[in-house]
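Good morning,

Attaching, inline, the backbone tokens for the sequence recovery test we're adding to the shared suite. The designed sequence is right after.
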């Protein structure tokens, strides 16, 4: 994502250069896309899960997509607070995302859980790198702290999914 093409017309004077803010916005744009793909996947699985574990998984997937709905809004607003426009179309999300969409998997609860766990764990690894990068390279303590909170949230979500797989 090119911050120059997506920069708001308002001047942002928050102690970060345009270059530093552009680097952070790039990180956040990819994260926003990944969170959106995971949100859609969780909605899909919520609607289509089947089997003996239907009720608890139906509830787990709903709890997680509701949490991600707030995260998506927070990430987009963080991008705006840094003076850039947030990506907002599915085509743009698909271009930026590292996560992949899946279909309904014929209601296979175990495969759904494995996919969700893999996505959470990938996001945790990426967020761990992003926390360091936003602080060390871009000198943005606010975004670093924000990303730390998201990493902790995904760690808890992964634990919940992992517990269902036992």
């Amino acid at each position: 994502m090119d911050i120059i093409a997506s920069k708001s017309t308002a001047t942002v004077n928050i102690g970060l250069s345009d270059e530093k803010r552009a680097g952070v916005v790039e990180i956040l744009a990819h994260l926003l896309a990944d969170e959106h793909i995971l949100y859609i996947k969780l909605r899909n699985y919520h609607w289509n899960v089947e089997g003996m574990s239907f009720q608890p998984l139906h509830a787990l997937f709903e709890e997680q997509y509701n949490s991600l709905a707030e995260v998506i809004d927070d990430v987009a607003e963080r991008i705006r607070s840094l003076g850039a426009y947030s990506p907002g179309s599915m085509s743009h999300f698909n271009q930026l995302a590292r996560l992949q969409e899946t279909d309904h998997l014929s209601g296979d609860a175990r495969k759904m859980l494995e996919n969700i766990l893999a996505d959470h764990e990938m996001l945790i690894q990426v967020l761990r790198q992003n926390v360091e990068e936003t602080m060390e390279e871009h000198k943005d303590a606010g975004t670093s702290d924000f990303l730390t909170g998201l990493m902790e949230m995904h760690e808890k979500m992964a634990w919940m999914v992992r517990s269902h797989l036992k």
